Amino acid sequence: MEFFRIKKDIPFMRHARMFNIISLVTFLIAVGSLAIQGLNFGVDFTGGTVMEVAYKQPPQLDDVRASVAKLGFAEASVQNFGTARDVLIRLPVKEGLTSAKLSEQVLAELRKQQADVEIRRVEFVGPQVGKELFESGALALLFVCIGIVAYLAMRFEWKFGLAAIIANLHDVIIIVGVFSIFRWEFSLPVLAAVLAILGYSVNESVVVFDRVRECFRSRQYRNASVPEVLDAAITQTMSRTIITHGSTQMMVLAMLLFGGETLFHFALALTIGICFGIYSSVLVASPIVMYLGVSRNDLVKPETVAKPGEDGAVV
Amino acid sequence: MNRYPLWKYLLIVAAVAIGLLYTLPNFYGEVPAVQVSPLRSNLKADAALMARVEATVKKAELAVQGIALDATSVKVRLSSTEDQLKAKDALQAALGEDYVVALNLLSRSPQWLTSIGALPMYLGLDLRGGVHFLMQVDMKAALTKKVETYTNDIRGMLREQRIQYSGIAREGQAVAVRFREAALRDKALARITKDMPDLELKTADDAGEYRITGTLKVEAQRRTQEFALQQNINTLRNRINELGVAEPIIQQQGADRVVVQLPGVQDTAKAKDILGRTATLEVRMVDEERMDPGSLEQAKAGQPPFGTELYYERNGQAVLVKKQVVLTGERINDAQPGFDGQTGEPAVHINLDGAGARIFQQVTRESIGKRMAILLFERGKGEVVTAPVIRSEIGGGRVQISGRMTTQEANDVSLLLRAGALAAPMDIVEERTVGPSLGADNIKIGFNSTLYGFAAIAVFMIGYYAMVGFFSVVALAANVLFLVALLSMLQATLTLPGMAGIALTLGMAIDANVLINERIREELRNGNTPHAAIFAGYDRAWGTILDSNVTTLIAGFALFAFGSGAVKGFAVVLCLGILTSIFSAVVVSRGLMNLYYGGQRKLDRISIG
User: So what CATH class is B140-221?
Assistant: First the structure.
């Protein structure tokens, strides 16, 4: 079986401008949403209390809301979680009210209505800890970006490094932007997913650029123009790109489908990251390299060409 | 060209064998067990204790699967959770309150596995249920308390030395002493400098007043904070022992935080109460007028005389104590073992705060020659720590208890006086509680997603790449094996994000095989012979595989360095998974290819779909 038996190189670079516009528009929408409505940060970052309680009989959410309001949390969010019998209660940080004892008070109040309510999970994060988790999360993001730039700078010529990092940051902004647009909760696991995908999708650019370098060096493309070489490299790696991402996505899909609410947003962030990862590393990074004016001379140093045998298998 | 030397095959076989061996314990599951550990440091978990435990469970006629002794406890394996509860009750009744009897789950894996260090992975709280607390120690309060102690000490010292001062008080984090004459101030300054090297002293004169301001030196502050943290951890450990948790984790985190993890604890309200309990030490007067044998007998029968209560000293002697409380433990700043200045006898030095000092002075003035009892309340039960006779009026808040005490006893008493109290108040700044049902669900979720994801990849790879795809799947399975074995060897804590990490690593690991397989196809298309294609495929893909793994590894390291708790677990799995995947995807799959195709000299085609 083979899905991608492509005889002729697909002229991706001819449509580079169109891809750029698509990228720019999605990017601007993401940035706009982030600027206007921001992110729906989870309790890890904002501080506060999250309680997941399970009832034997499906409760009236309004009753639950009323109980929580009695404790001074009129604005608490109360919603079903997975099934009608599971309820998720989110209490924001409130001066003088927020403490580790709060969950017990809420439970006591809920027990007055239905005695069989059972705690599934409580997460209480003090405002200070939330702030620290936020800071270390931002630091982790920064560290990954710097680490990858440094690696790419070492590994490739600066034009490729720059293009790869722009493409991947574009991915990150879009993942985060999608979370902002749909008001999905941005929690610690989601951040972990974003960072993992950042590391993963840089691979894609690395693979394409490796192939670009190889093509520039091979005799077959000696007279080809830069866009032609890029097209050839992308076409040649496309099968591999789609299949690896597809198989990673199969795993992520399993988490999305069977992972329950707990892993849902984690898997969702990975899914968006994988989809945009394919797109950006191929159709964002390569045009940037082209605009930066990459040429054969950037890659092909005389002594490399002189080495016989290296290209032998390709001919 | 596609042949491995024998040692490479042996390496693969050895790796798989070790992988299997260390993965194995995870499949045996767990048996209910009861764990007995001594509460006091003078009691040991030894063969004698084991014999007692054995006798007790035998008497209760419970089906015991085994009894084992380790460094800190005796563990009894039982066949059912019902027996487990019965055994716990029987043991608690037989051993009394000097031992913690806790429910536990032990691995069912056979002895020979345990003896080679093959243990199952430790399940995180989100998988087994339990409570995680992060507690913040109020360091400012610890420093204030220390300065308060110094204020008392200086007051007492100046009185002893008969140096007249016009006022002494704690002002924020400093001690301020005022004098009317410069000469007195200088005399005091010399004294304080000599006796209290931890204080940074400054002098100031204004409007006919001569002042000394003492603050804690930076070094002393650091020591005070470290001490406070250490004492709080000790106190927490004592309190958690009461909860009967099998494997509590109490660890320092950063300069001023303590992590407490209590696996299996469901009653979080009780846990919080016990962790956050305040000092329960009381000073009361002994009712000596009514301590006649008759009243004592009556009191022992449950009817103490009106206005009194019956308590026992540590040696078992009964004492009738007035109900009226003179002082509570909150007034005690510090208690240290030491020696009596005159007689050289072992003694306990107690330091009271300002209000406590005043009350104490008044009470001692009125009750010279009488006995006073210091009571410690633990688990709602009182015990007389010591009941000394008051010899003279005691002012200045510096109390010394001495007489009929050995050095060991002085140590114990001062520890007891301090143990009830935390060195500084603590707040819970983070809590994560997971109920047992959610924990079990999480295991299922994590396991199922990994299994279904793996199955989907396997079906696809075999369908798409045929025989070569099958080799890739075997390599991927080997990757799971290596990863789980490595995590078990390291005794890493498995969390739900960790399981997600295993799933994600597998999804990413197949990347390497896809790279290789695609390359082989390409080489074949370019007209290379099958053997050359296999060789070139692995050879060429190697650089790319290395590249792609390095970038993911960077992300993994960052997550590990900056992540906390569960995210760290994810990061560990991610990093280890990348390392194992390089081995499995490149070496193991190549080994299979070589074994299958390498021997065929005239290879016409490869089954690669």
Answer: alpha beta
Q: For residue B185, what is the DSSP state?
A: H
Distance CA A247, CA B450 (A): 13
CATH superfamily of this structure's domain B30-108: ACT domain (3.30.70.260)
CB contacts, 8 Å: B507 with chain A: 247-252
3-state SS, residue B495:
coil
Question: Same fold for the domain at B30-108 and the one at B278-428?
Answer: no
Nearest residue of chain A to residue B553 (CA atoms): A199
How is residue B294 written in tokens?
């008759």
Q: Does B458 have pLDDT greater than 90?
A: yes
> Per-residue confidence at A305, pLDDT binned at 50, 70, 90?
very low
Closest Cα in chain A to B446: A259
pLDDT tier at A310 (50, 70, 90 boundaries)? very low
How far A54 CA lies from chain B's nearest CA (Å)?
10
Domains present along chain A, CATH in parentheses: 12-40+130-306 (1.20.1640.10), 48-125 (3.30.70.3400)
Whole-number CA gyration radius for chain A? 25
pLDDT in the model for residue B396: 78
Separation between Cα atoms, residue B74 and residue B462, nearest integer Å: 51
The ipTM assigned to this model is: 0.85
Q: How far apart are CA B97 and CA A45, in angstroms?
A: 43
- Using an 8 Å Cβ cutoff, are A279 and A245 in contact? no
Q: How do beta strands A118-125 and A48-54 pair?
A: antiparallel
Helix (H) or strand (E) segment spanning residue B131: strand B130-137
